[in-house]
Amino acid sequence: MHPRPSPIAASLYTLRDLNVDVIVMHGPKGCCFRTSRLLESDGVRVLTTGMSENDFILGAGEKLEETLIKAYDMFHPKLMGVVGTCASMIIGEDLKEAIENVNLDCTIIPVEVHAGLGEGDNTEGAILVLERAVEYGVIPKEEADRQIKMLRLATEVEKTRGMAQGKYIKPNFGDNKEKIANIIVDAIKNNKKVAFVLNAKKETSYLFADILNFDYTKINTNNKPIFIGNLDENIGLPRIRSHAKNVKSDLKEQSNIDFDYITGGLDEYPVTGDIAEEYLKNKDIDLLVVVGVPHALKIEDLDVESIAVTDGPRLVEALRDDGYNHVVAELDAHSKTLGVDTIVDSDFGMMIRSVINWNTE
């Protein structure tokens, strides 16, 4: 009942993950404006054909061809994407025909996407990109099939436990961060068994990993928390693998953190929550902290005091309904992590480190 990310935005992010150099959006200037601007920070050039009212009636194939030629002349890309919008797809614009007509010396992936694609789930846009990427020889079918499976599972998680449950969810900014940081520090100080689960989505791992980025020895030398994460650097597209490698390297260098268990890759967050849950079942944990996509872990199956850290204010109440005792909301995870390759400060991570310093002064 409330707005959610569209398939168009998901297609743009997925093309980014395929390392395209340029994306041409065939639609009005304002379509997916914020996403397009953010992707510029990740090194992707995003252009638009700027369709107007007359184009909605007469078509804009020539505009698309002209924009493709200009994009090629300006940036000399090896790989491009052409993304449809509601306007161009409703009137039946032929993206493939325009690509064939300009006959540029690069690979161009056409993505016939609009906001109502399928059931309107954002993952449908990502799936369409993966299918087209196989068709144009950019990725192998096996990798596309694996990712499509993960995307469908992600949709299921959102529809059963997340923001897409079909009801209105009032935004909520969660619990007081200082109070929750003190719960974590006190637990480690008092020899309770604490576990951190990083179950993050792609580049947002740079922000959520910061919550694990502290020196536990300043609290209690003899009580190392358990660290679990979906940071397998051998799974996923090259960009995603590099995120996992960078996060692990940063945590090791900055806080000497070695992970006790790796649950999978950064694009496998719909299932790595279940893997983390299974690993923890017999560990007699006193306090569990799950960051990133905490609703993918069935906290109701674990008898433990729990803290969820999410990037969605609309997820706070849903996470409490799932059974989390405490919920913290981090804002703007996507915008803070686009274009970076190192861990960035999170509000909650900085609060944990501040509480540690206050306790050791």
Topology readout:
Layout: H1 7-17, E1 22-26, H2 33-40, E2 45-48, H3 53-58, H4 61-75, E3 79-84, H5 86-90, H6 95-102, E4 107-111, H7 123-135, H8 141-161, H9 177-189, E5 194-199, H10 205-208, E6 226-229, H11 238-255, E7 261-262, H12 269-280, E8 287-292, E9 305-310, H13 316-322, E10 326-329, H14 333-337, H15 347-360
Parallel strand pairs: 1-2, 1-3, 3-4, 5-6, 5-8, 6-7, 8-9, 9-10
Helix pairs in contact: 1-7, 4-6, 7-8, 9-15
Question: What descriptors fit this protein?
Answer:
Rossmann fold, 361 residues, alpha/beta, single chain, 2 domains, 4-stranded parallel sheet, 6-stranded parallel sheet
What would you say about this model in short?
The protein has 361 residues and is α/β, with parallel strands linked by helices. It is 44% helix and 13% strand.
Explain the overall architecture.
The mean pLDDT is 94. The chain has helices spanning 7-17, 33-40, 53-58, 61-75, 86-90, 95-102, 123-135, 141-161, 177-189, 205-208, 238-255, 269-280, 316-322, 333-337, 347-360, and strands at 22-26, 45-48, 79-84, 107-111, 194-199, 226-229, 261-262, 287-292, 305-310, 326-329. The chain has two domains: 7-161, 3-Layer(aba) Sandwich (Rossmann fold), CATH 3.40.50.1980; 177-360, Rossmann fold. Strand 1 (22-26), helix 2 and strand 2 form a beta-alpha-beta unit. Helix 1 (7-17) packs across helix 7 (123-135) and helix 9 packs across helix 15 (347-360). The protein has 15 helices and ten strands. The longest helix is centred in the middle third of the chain and has 21 residues, at 141-161. The strands form two sheets. It has a six-stranded parallel sheet with strand order 7-6-5-8-9-10, sandwiched between helices. The protein has a four-stranded parallel sheet with strand order 2-1-3-4, sandwiched between helices. It is an alpha/beta fold and 361 residues long. The N and C termini lie far apart (49 Å). It is elongated.
